Amino acid sequence: MEEITKLDINVFRYSSQVINETGTAISNVYDHPLIENSIDFLFRRLEGLTRSSLSEYIFRKEKIIIERFKEFPLAWHTDDLAILEFSDFENIYSVSSSTVLFRNSGYNISSKSDNTIQKNLANFYFYHYLIKEHSNKFSQYQLTILWAKMEKAFLDDKKQLDLAIKYSSLSFQNLKILRFLDFSRKYFQAILN
Questions:
Q1: Residue 192: is its pLDDT beyond 70?
Q2: Which terminus has fewer CB within 10 Å in the chain: N or C?
Q3: Burial of residue 177 (number of CB atoms within 10 Å: 0-12, 13-18, 19+)
Q4: Domain spans of the chain?
């Protein structure tokens, strides 16, 4: 606690391990660097190099009161955004000497497959929110990845007209006209196929 306070860190995390419904370990232990930038962590997670669930985190109460948890369908990515915002897009402090066990029982939101439309909507809203509200926190390379993830979420469920409007509006606000035109071409090709 003394070191966390001295470093002014607002997000603390334990190592984690996935277990099945009977308590048998089904993954290795996921350890993290002692101190890791939350943006670096997000991109490590997006690349599939680590996992994360809300259960292994402790947040400063003041940050929760100020920032609040954001609502996405199924609360999908709510924890990812909390890690970023509660840390002020700064550092996470990790402890490897204790491990949180995450039970993947088949009933979890992450392991179910009958909720893919809602997960997909949450994916779109999460990436849209990051670009709209926090684009200044990311490098151009990282923003390119976030845009591509948002576009994929939209193309995975082409029937959501409100998402098309949100995407178009964000594209024009960010002067991404060429990106919008390229995306429109992909969208119409997907519809025709």
A1: no
A2: C
A3: exposed
A4: 2-103, 116-192
